[in-house]
Amino acid sequence: MNTAAIVKAGARPLEDRTAPMIDPFGRAITYLRVSVTDRCDFRCTYCMAEHMTFLPKKDLLTLEELHRLCSAFIAKGVRKLRLTGGEPLVRKNIMFLVRELGREIEAGRLDELTLTTNGSQLAKHAAELADCGVRRINVSLDTLDPAKFHQITRWGDLGKVIEGIDAAQAAGIKVKINAVALKGFNDAEIPDLMRWAHGRDMDLTLIETMPMGEIEEDRTDHYMPLSEMRRQLEQQFTLSDIAYKTGGPARYVEVAETGGRLGLITPMTHNFCESCNRVRLTCTGTLYMCLGQNDAADLRTALRASDDDVYLGQVIDEAIGRKPKGHDFIIDREHNRPAVARHMSVTGG
């Protein structure tokens, strides 16, 4: 439907665009994840194919357009915004967008601006990120063994990631480590990874691998249910469930022996859909209302149809009205195809 048709049908007045976004199940949408690029300087085996075909750069929204979309969501009640990729810090001039969004924090329109990164580019950007109001980041790190790190990332250098973590902490940014638990690869290392993270005052969050995108390996070979991972950890550690939340899907436990927190993200064994407050925007302006479903909304067309946000706001509202109750991830030998064809790098997890 074009702009004129929307207006004729009765678009909401401009002053009503700030009405909160409530999905069909009564969940307020207050968290936007923005994939600023599908490109990455790693090729993690559970996330990407080794020889990826990325979007042509001409198909990407400009950083100014991404900022306008983010601002529209902030005006509609989003209070937390996370930049993801691919690897967000490989996007050319990405700090322009970070600084513009930082002004939303200064103005009190946004509570938190964060990002998820592989850490490879963090050393050169950490100080500026902190200056723009970024107070907390997630760094994806599955192993502290340099050879295994290079193996699973295909291209990564563990030393550069550690250097980036050092720089972020020196800049006053709180770092959380994200690790995908992989049976037969890093499951035996998780206790040492947790001790290392907690020893540096960093939380550790474990994530179950998800069936997204075609990759070379069979995910069932390395799928590790976190219920089993927790059982193994409890042979060495005292884990106590706590109510701590960061706004994301992780459930947290406190580890008595280290004094740190361990998060568990379980899209497979215990999904977190009942409290989902998130939607995901891609670098092409596609809005996914659920990570594990294919339904999406085209915001790029709406964005470029008009200089004001009336039509855009209505398209966003219509999309939120289609947000499903949850996803349908399955990993077993009978379901050897991904639940969704797009790779994790498209929507940033």
Automatic annotation (TrEMBL):
Catalyzes the cyclization of GTP to (8S)-3',8-cyclo-7,8-dihydroguanosine 5'-triphosphate. [4Fe-4S] cluster 1 binds at C40, C44, C47. Binds 2 [4Fe-4S] clusters. Binds 1 [4Fe-4S] cluster coordinated with 3 cysteines and an exchangeable S-adenosyl-L-methionine and 1 [4Fe-4S] cluster coordinated with 3 cysteines and the GTP-derived substrate. Pathway: Cofactor biosynthesis; molybdopterin biosynthesis. Its EC number is 4.1.99.22. This is GTP 3',8-cyclase. S-adenosyl-L-methionine binds at Y46, G86, S140, M210. The gene is moaA. Monomer and homodimer. It catalyses: GTP + AH2 + S-adenosyl-L-methionine = (8S)-3',8-cyclo-7,8-dihydroguanosine 5'-triphosphate + 5'-deoxyadenosine + L-methionine + A + H(+). [4Fe-4S] cluster 2 binds at C273, C276, C290. Coiled coil: none annotated. GTP binds at R33, R82, T116, K176, R278, V279, R280. NCBIfam families: moaA. PROSITE patterns: MOAA_NIFB_PQQE, RADICAL_SAM. Belongs to the radical SAM superfamily. MoaA family. Keywords: 4Fe-4S, GTP-binding, Iron, Iron-sulfur, Lyase, Metal-binding, Molybdenum cofactor biosynthesis, Nucleotide-binding, S-adenosyl-L-methionine. The keyword Nucleotide-binding applies. One of its GO terms (biological process) is Mo-molybdopterin cofactor biosynthetic process. Pfam families: Mob_synth_C, Radical_SAM. It comes from Ensifer canadensis. Residues 24-249 form the Radical SAM core domain. Its cofactor is [4Fe-4S] cluster.
